[in-house]
Design goal:
two-stranded antiparallel ribbon; 17 helices; 2 strands; mainly alpha; single chain
């Protein structure tokens, strides 16, 4: 390593590392989300005596993990999505609005439609005999807003965020980007409060998505700094990490029982602290090729893994299987991997059909 490189490392945290290890960070995020979902059932098993008293140490570890990290992988996902969209938009400055929407929605809607058609047909039509109308309501996310059906809620969130992104991008990347960022952050933080004041039930149904808007906006805003490789002094990095951990500590021990709105905003702050640490760990473990490959592969197929995981888990429960059973958990993991591969292959086939050029007419 040259002296210049050493000096650069000493000078501060290179934000470009977040982009460099984006795939690995996305991989860590999807693994954390899957782990969290499985631990919900495990925690329930401990609570109701399913595992007995022999594994009390594991019970304690699971409780600490769930209380501290919960579903923080979602925050990492959303932040990195905002950052990624900034990279894409800044690279294609002249792209029209319709072209942007077509490109971005195609990326998520085609895999989603493959997933939704199979999953909701099996669950609503074949198992629950709820009928085709119910299938349409669930697949179109109508029941997410009216009943709080959250099985694949993240896709509904992405649909909303993709629609709003051009506005967020314009307001947070111009000459007055800092002012625009503060304004947009204030609006997205307060918007759920406004929804709650208008309709408590609607807020309850969709708050899991609404409270993730601010971390997305932060990802969009930081996209420029990350792309330009801005360096943050190590003292400031330590301050940022400390703020996140202090906020999480206060939430856990001083203000226990606060509502989910406050908890999610604190989780967003804490997620940034952890994301910095994870990025540094990725840099430290960069020479561990096999681990980086596993994480980057998980990140590359994170959308398919997410949809496969949540639908397999939900359908397994619908069929009446005990989600606390370690054998069932193992089967769900394997089934999720297989289903994710099927979703990806099917989506790629549809992309190919859509991209096939029509024969030229003479």
């Amino acid at each position: 390593m040259s002296i210049t490189e050493k000096e650069r490392r000493i000078s501060g945290f290179d934000l470009h590392l977040v982009s460099k290890y984006r795939s690995q960070l996305m991989g860590i995020a999807i693994i954390q989300i899957m782990f969290f979902h499985f631990l919900i059932a495990v925690q329930s098993g401990f609570k109701f005596g399913y595992y007995g008293n022999s594994y009390w140490i594991i019970h304690k570890l699971v409780s600490y993990y769930m209380n501290i990290l919960h579903s923080i992988g979602v925050e990492w996902f959303v932040f990195l999505s905002g950052m990624g969209l900034y990279f894409s938009a800044s690279k294609n400055e002249g792209e029209g609005l319709l072209s942007f929407y077509r490109r971005r929605y195609r990326r998520i809607l085609i895999p989603y439609l493959v997933t939704a058609v199979v999953f909701w047909t099996l669950k609503d039509v074949m198992v629950l005999h709820a009928g085709f109308a119910r299938f349409l309501m669930d697949a179109s996310f109508l029941t997410f807003f009216t009943e709080g059906v959250k099985t694949i809620w993240y896709i509904a969130l992405m649909i909303m965020l993709y629609f709003l992104f051009p506005l967020f991008y314009r307001l947070t990347s111009g000459k007055i980007r800092v002012i625009g960022f503060i304004a947009v952050m204030a609006i997205t933080i307060l918007f759920p409060v406004w929804v709650y004041s208008l309709n408590h039930e609607l807020y309850s149904n969709i708050q899991i998505a609404l409270t993730r808007f601010p971390i997305f906006v932060f990802g969009v805003f930081m996209g420029k700094e990350i792309k330009n490789g801005v360096r943050i002094p190590w003292l400031l990095v330590l301050d940022i990490i400390a703020i996140g951990f202090i906020a999480e500590y206060l939430l856990l021990f001083e203000f226990r029982g606060v509502n989910s709105y406050v908890a999610r905003n604190v989780a967003s702050i804490f997620s940034v602290s952890l994301l910095i640490i994870l990025t540094l760990l990725c840099q430290l473990l960069g020479k561990c090729k096999w681990l980086m490959k596993i994480l980057s592969t998980a990140g590359k197929y994170s959308l398919e893994l997410y949809m496969a995981h949540v639908t397999v888990r939900n359908f397994t429960g619908t069929l009446g299987f005990d989600l606390r059973d370690p054998r069932i958990i193992f089967i769900m993991v394997v089934a999720s991997l297989v289903w994710a591969a099927v979703i990806h292959i099917a989506a790629q086939g549809i992309y190919s059909l859509l991209d096939r050029k029509r024969p030229k007419t003479i």
